[in-house]
Specification:
heterodimer; A: about 110 residues; 7-stranded mixed sheet; 4-stranded antiparallel sheet; B: about 120 residues; mainly beta; 6-stranded mixed sheet; about 0% helix; globular
Chain lengths: ~110, ~120
């Protein structure tokens, strides 16, 4: 199993550009989510999905869109990049249900917006 | 609202000594789970240990143990016999069903940077 994979690893954008961060998992997990990590603030939830076709907003959703057409893929779209979106982005997945189910994280994408 | 607080921005420990990383939490749910993750300088998130709110015994995983004090709402991570490879950022996180969602959002603390000295 590859686990959770993310592409690209690094990206530099100019203000106003759009792009899609890719996330895929091969563990057949129903739950997937996107987090951003900023210095001194831990990880904050952007959007999440509880299954194909079902998504919802997390704590910091503004400026981001998601869709979930398959169980495996959960792309994150930046509509018009802003310097405030400079961050490290993590995709995660886990099995449905159970508070104890471990969340598996991808390796992260480091995004810089100039 | 759910909240996780890690009050130690940085901690230092001598190799082979034990160290405790503090974590306090706040939730209105009776049923919740507490997690600790390690993030080395390479950036990946590594799951260490889990404690459920109804678990009567403190969780242990090898050199990691979780000192769970429910009445005080604390879930401190204890690392015994520290190794140089333990130098990393450590995050405490909580999952509950506050707000009635089935998803169970994971809320993270700000993290503690642990440095192990030889």
């Amino acid at each position: 199993n590859a686990g959770v994979t993310q592409t690209p690893k690094f990206q530099v954008l100019k203000t106003g550009q759009s792009m899609t961060l890719q996330c895929a998992q091969d563990m057949n997990h129903e739950y997937m989510s996107w987090y951003r990590q900023d210095p001194g603030m831990g990880l904050r939830l952007i959007h999440y999905s509880v299954g194909a076709g079902i998504t919802d907003q997390g704590e910091v959703p503004n400026g981001y869109n998601v869709s979930r057409s398959t169980t495996e893929d959960f792309p994150l779209r930046l509509l018009s990049a802003a310097p405030s979106q400079t961050s490290v982005y993590f995709c995660a997945s886990r099995e449905r249900g159970g508070l104890s189910n471990e969340q598996f994280f991808g390796p992260g994408t480091r995004l810089t917006v100039l | 609202a759910q909240k996780i607080t890690q009050t130690q921005p940085g901690m230092f420990v001598q190799e082979k000594e034990a160290v405790t990383l503090d974590c306090t939490y706040d939730t209105s749910d009776q049923s919740y789970g507490l997690f600790w993750y390690k993030q080395p300088s390479s950036g990946e998130m590594i799951f260490l240990i889990y404690q459920g709110s109804y678990d009567e015994q403190n969780a242990t995983e090898g050199r990691y143990s979780l000192n769970f004090q429910k009445a005080r709402k604390s879930a401190n991570l204890v690392i015994s016999a520290s190794q140089l490879g333990d130098s990393a950022m450590y995050f405490c996180a909580m999952r509950d069903h506050a707000g009635g969602t089935s998803y169970g959002k994971l809320t993270f603390g700000q993290g503690t940077i642990l440095t192990v000295h030889p």
